[in-house]
Every structure is written in C-alpha cells, then in structure tokens.
Amino acid sequence: MNPTTFKSTRTDTRSFRFSEALLQGLSEDGGLFIPEAIPDLPVGWRDQTAFNELGLLVLRNWLGNELPEADLASLVTDALNFPVPVVRLQDSAYLGEQTAVLELTHGPTLSFKDFGARTMARLMAYFLSKQGRKLTILVATSGDTGSAVADGFSGLDGIEVVLLYPKGQVSPVQEMQLVVSRPGVRSFAVEGTFDDCQRMVKEAFMDPVLAHLPLSSANSINIGRLLPQSLYYIWAYLQMDCPVINFCVPSGNLGNLTGGLFACEGGLPVNQFVVAHNANNFFPTYLETHQANYKPSVRTVSNAMDVGVPSNFERLQSLFTPQGLNDRLWATSVSDEETTATMQRVYQETGYVACPHTAVGLEAVHRYRRETGDHTPIVVLSTAHPAKFPEVVGSALQVEPPKAEALELLKSRTFTHYTLSKTLEALREVLLKKPHDT
Length: 438
What we know:
about 40% helix, about 15% strand
C-alpha cells in the first residue's frame, strides 16, 4: 500500500513522506504540510465496531507501508484507549430533533486534543527511535492543547516539550493541568495573548540562531495532529446510523474542522459543517466577505477558542477555493452572554451539562436550523469536559459542576512553571538552555 505524500502550502516542488512532515512540523518555507491527495476511505470502514480498529484501518490507509501494521496497531491501541460515546440529546424546542453530542472528553486530559496528541506522540517516538534522533516539541496553547501534548509526550525517550500559554488567560483548572510536573516537560506562562505564543513558536522555527536545534510542533500546525482527529467524525457517523449527517464544530485554530474535512473529502457522507466560533470571529467573517482581516484575539468564557489568527486557515485556503469552503461550511459567532444562556437552556430542556465551548456549538445548531430549515441529524463535537470550567458552569447552571477523577488526582501532585516575556529573544534563551538550567 502506497503512503500518502505531503507538500507545503507555500511551495509544491517537493513531496514529503508522513514521517518527514510529522517530525519536521513546519515546512522550511514556513508553510504547513497538506496531503497532495486525500485518500478515499478504506474498504470496510463501515463495518468497524471498535474505535481503535477503525483508527488502525483509516490511519494505515494514510500511512501505507511507512511502518509495519503490527507496530501501528500497537501504537493506536495504546493511544486511543478511552471511550468515545455519542450521546443523543432529548428533543427540545431549542435544538429540535435528532441532535447528538460526540463526547471527546474521556481521555486523560478531558479534551479532544488527547486524540491527536497521544497518537502523534507515539508515532514521533517510534520514528525517532528508528532514526536514533532526539526532538524538542515547541507548542503554543490557548488552554487544552498544552496539557494534552504534555501528558501525551511526557516521559517518551528522546523528546522534550517546551509549552507556552498566555498568562492569566486560561481557566484555573486548565492551568493546573498545564503546570503539573511531568518528566521532559517545561511550561511557561507568556506575558501576552495566545496569538503572541503562536507567533513566538513560528518565529522560533524560522530563526537562524535556532536552526541547529531539532525543533518540531505538536499543535494543529502539525499534520500528525489532524489525521487522528478525522477518526471520530467517521466513528460518530457510524453510531448515528443514518445515510447522511451534519457536524457542528466549536472552532478556534481550525484544526478540528480540517480533520473533519479530510474525512468528508475521503468519502464520509457529510451534508454540512456548522462552524461555531466565539467572539473571535475572523473565520465567519471571512466566509461572508472572502477578506482575511485578522484582529487580535479577545478573551471569552470559551477560552480554548480564543484565537485571532487561526493557523489552519492557511491549510484551508490551499485545499479549497473560497466558494468551495462556502459550499461545505456554515459559520457563526457566539457571544459570552449567548454561550451561558445556551448552557442554561440546554440543561433545562435536556438535562445535558455542556462546557462553554460545547455550548457555543449548541447555540450554532439552534441558529443553523432556524435560518436554513435543514433538519438533517447533527452531531455537535463536545471538545472539553465541563469539570474543567467549574466557575463558568456553576455560575450558569446554579448547580455543582460534575467532577472528574483525572482532575482530582492532579491536586496531590507537584507543580512547576515559569514566566516568559512575549519575545523571540526570551524564547530563544529558553531553548538554548538545558532543561535543568531553566
């Protein structure tokens, strides 16, 4: 089986194997890696009844013979060892009929980022061990990516993680997950926004002073994050047992959406993607005007989506024409007030406790059905566990938020983090130091 090859979004003069794109993270020209052709879903995908077996089938279809099937099976089974339930919500006046929630919140850090981070970590460690190499993973996070990457990569041979997050702009629970002491992980609170963190990461990759360092990325800049994220769209479709489906995707950096589009372009019967943003509304505005007018990110209660300059927009522009995006996507922007009101109403009508990010998606479903009249069954991606946002959930619902054992266990561990100014010079100094000198 021939593997899929990849190219840069900025030049297409060279093809890369998956392992090359995975370990490099960002192309040398500053572009992001995209598939030269998206493979069709493999024969037998509709017959899968276990998530890890579906994952093996689909990922093998992308990776071909880059690693033996037995090794890939072991990696996928180890990475994706938690439940992926589809919860059908009670019909309500607000959401209508046939609305379901795909709970991507049962991994070790209670976020959808666990799927991509854990799979990517094991694939990276596998290829590095074969090549006798070491790597430093440099990642910016607006909340959930960092803890998933830190947990997924911690303790793996040959890999160090340097994690940047915006100081004071993640929830207290998210910060606890980010700064808990882990082998091989250093966490830095940057005195700026997520956009500053993301800019610093990109600048570090292009910095001649750091060119000798083995750097790679682990957020959705990296193609290795996106392929595993395509899997749960396929899984949700199979659980819904209907001929065609809609998806609603709470969105920030657009990586989750890109994974869904990979599945759709491969043949998954998706009628429409509803793209749900908070007040950071760059992408809904782009779909309306086809003008890329970037703005600084603003803080919201759905903080993991607080992205002013979405990295994967460059991928989407390379893969689709503006009209092609409009044909596949319907997008909207939801305010904080509407988010908390949605949490309240959905809880009252269905009993479902949604985190603020999931609530942005549920409000988008309400708007989409009201404005289009489309009643195709729809699955909302629940991207984070409500236990990660006890203040917001408790205030909105006036009930005690649900507990999560994974969070309770963290409280007894030690925590280590540092503060960093929002400059390349500051990050450069960190990267040039040995971990024990920080």
